[in-house]
Amino acid sequence: MDSRQLFKIRFTAHIKHVMRYAQYILNGHIAIALIFLVVAFAVIYQQFLLDLPEAFPVSLVMSVLFSLVILYNPIQTFTKQADLVFLLPTIESLKGFFYRGLVYSFFFQSYLMILILAAISPLYHARFTSGNYLFIIFLFLIFKLWHFIMSWASLRLRDQTLLFYTKVGLFIVQTFVWYSYLKSWTILFIIGVMGLFLILSYLLHQAFDHSLALDQLIMNDQHRLERFYRLASLFTDVRELSTRVKKRQLLSRLLTSSVMIKQKETFTYLYRLTFSRSEDYLGLSSRLVVIGGVALAAIDQTLLSFGIGVLFIYLIGIQLLPLFSHHDTKLWLLLYPVNKQEKERAFLQLLTALLSIVVLVLTATIMLRLTLLDGLLFLVLAGIFSYGFVWVYAKNKVKARK
């Protein structure tokens, strides 16, 4: 079998599949929101650098961030479930297929490497006026390549406990190496690099004593694709997505206990239960609320705080819209003797309640960070925006999906 041709076929199919959903993710209003976030972060970051405290641990922050990016090495091999049957007998002849996947994976991560190196550069020059940042970039690429090769080799190992402790140990050593370099501790830096090289060499030796675990490659690719589906599901319906459900008995009981046992409350009960148990909605919404709260706590400018707060309300609302059609593929829902208008009403009421909670949390954050008057003004602004989002924008979207 021609490994080059196989890689070309799989790679082309993967790009077409991803681009089909990417066009929904990077549509107009999301692109505008991302641009606004980038500009807001740039303004906050610039203000932070101008007032950089002398006690701020620049070396430690850089060491941790660099180490996290260096150890983050997702590898895309373009394998499929059927390969366990059809490719396993010829796996040794497909080295070119996997090597091309490795090259793609390494260069695909370049966006993250460029982003972190560009973001850290102003912080570095603000503290180390006489440093050589080009040499830091060189070291970063060398360490990244080391750990990338190790990540590929570790896919041969099946002991997940060993891999976990190995990653923790490598993170600690790598952070120590960066910290020693930034502090100009030359002897400790050399000792750390030697220790890191010995650890990686030992792990490589252990890994290559085992054959390539094709089932692990397939599982990793499936998990990575599933995470992409979850991102795409915030913007469009994804047929390939398998939903993870957790019982969350306490939260489910709390949300559904007040629902009256009536025919017209059928979808009210269903949507509340779905929100509480599905990771797609509760988990992502909670994370966005936390990120929004942290962002507002770091901003001391009124207008910028208002803009960031409204933006996060919008993002959370967008993320919750797919909840309306979450169960549409289940045929037994058609057996419900419930008016379709009750379904729309139940969803919009739940969305109103959830966004109201978000508004209150962000308002409290602004009150604590700025002033009581600023918080009250934001409460009015966010309340008007949330009402318009639910009963104008979301309502029109819901009617279009019916």
What would the keywords be for this entry?
single chain, 402 residues, mainly alpha, 2 domains
Question: Any overview of this molecule?
Answer:
This protein is mainly α and 402 residues long. The chain has two domains: 3-230, no CATH class; 249-401, no CATH class. It has 16 helices and no strands. Helix 7 packs parallel to helix 9 and helix 13 packs antiparallel against helix 14. The longest helix has 30 residues, at 340-369. The chain starts with a helix and ends with a helix. This is ABC transporter permease. The chain crosses the membrane at residues 21-44, 56-75, 96-121, 133-155, 162-179, 185-204, 281-299, 305-325, 346-370, 376-394.
Q: SSE layout and pairings?
A:
Elements: H1 3-25, H2 28-50, H3 58-71, H4 83-86, H5 95-108, H6 110-127, H7 133-154, H8 160-182, H9 186-207, H10 214-232, H11 249-256, H12 266-277, H13 282-297, H14 302-320, H15 340-369, H16 372-401
Helix pairs in contact: 1-5, 1-10, 2-14, 3-6, 3-7, 3-8, 7-9, 8-9, 11-12, 12-15, 13-14, 13-15, 14-15, 14-16, 15-16
Report, as a whole number of angstroms, the end-to-end distance.
Answer: 48 Å
What's the mean pLDDT score? 81
Q: DSSP helix count?
A: 16
β-sheet strand percentage: under 5%
Radius of gyration: 25 Å
Q: Provide the low-confidence segments as ranges.
A: none
* Major sheet attributes: none
Structure classification = mainly alpha
Order of helices and strands: HHHHHHHHHHHHHHHH
Proportion of helical residues: over 70%
DSSP strand tally: 0
Question: What overall geometry do the principal axes of the alpha carbons give?
Answer: globular
Number of domain units: 2
Keywords: Membrane, Transmembrane, Transmembrane helix
Protein name: ABC transporter permease
Organism: Halolactibacillus alkaliphilus
Transmembrane segments: 21-44, 56-75, 96-121, 133-155, 162-179, 185-204, 281-299, 305-325, 346-370, 376-394
